[in-house]
């Protein structure tokens, strides 16, 4: 990360590459693989599919902050702090006699370095042992609803807004308490994490935070009414 330029403008290839790798490590199985890879003498692991990593995981949401910091802290300047924020809800609804699980499961890592802040979002994953809960309750919840707070009155994709809103206050409290509001903020995420990155970036910018740029990878369209789009 010594090559990361927190003051860059426009598409910066180096920043782009580094943020892409950081968002890859937001997934439990990708971070899990890293520890096994080094334990295996930095040789590829034979037979370790994503499904097997999910079943035999050593990295979980309970130890994710410690695992992320342990794997990546040497890339960042001394004095960098790591804060993992996540919150889940899961419920079900019966339609024509069939139960459908739906839920919200936002996960993000705040990396507070001496000269900049990274906010990294994870994409769609299981809620506990439920595979479809986040897909149904977040990704596929494409109706539009009014946002609140700094985006008061704007209409946006309901699933993405509700997911961000679930961790909004905790994120703002952490940014304020840790002095992160005084540094350029870079936000990135893959897939659903990209959509949440856009909502988060717009919200923080509207709320007076120094958001520099938002980088998204394979993000779905964060649909909204014209005021939100503008």
Structure commentary:
The protein has 230 residues and is an alpha/beta fold. Helices cover 37% and strands 22% of the residues. It is built from 8 helices and 9 strands. The protein has helices at residues 13-24, 28-39, 50-55, 64-72, 133-139, 158-177, 192-206, 226-229; strands at 81-86, 89-95, 98-104, 107-112, 117-121, 144-146, 155-157, 185-190, 211-217. The strands form 3 sheets. A 5-stranded mixed β-sheet has the order 1-4-5-8-9, sandwiched between helices. A two-stranded antiparallel ribbon has the order 2-3. Strand 8 (185-190), helix 7 and strand 9 (211-217) form a beta-alpha-beta unit. Helix 2 crosses helix 4 (64-72). The longest helix is centred in the last third of the chain and has 20 residues, at 158-177. The mean pLDDT is 94.
Produce the secondary structure layout.
Blueprint: H1 13-24, H2 28-39, H3 50-55, H4 64-72, E1 81-86, E2 89-95, E3 98-104, E4 107-112, E5 117-121, H5 133-139, E6 144-146, E7 155-157, H6 158-177, E8 185-190, H7 192-206, E9 211-217, H8 226-229
Parallel strand pairs: 5-8, 8-9
Antiparallel strand pairs: 1-4, 2-3, 4-5, 6-7
Order of helices and strands: HHHHEEEEEHEEHEHEH
Widest sheet: strand order?
A: 1-4-5-8-9
How many beta-strand runs?
9
Shape: globular
- Uncertain runs: none
Q: Helix content range of the residues, please? A: 25-40%
Any idea what the radius of gyration is? Answer: 18 Å
Mean pLDDT: 94
- Quaternary organisation: single chain
Structural class: alpha/beta
Strand content: 15-25%
Query: What is the first-to-last residue Cα distance?
Result: 33 Å
User: Main beta sheet, described?
Assistant: 5 strands, mixed
Per DSSP, the total helix count is 8
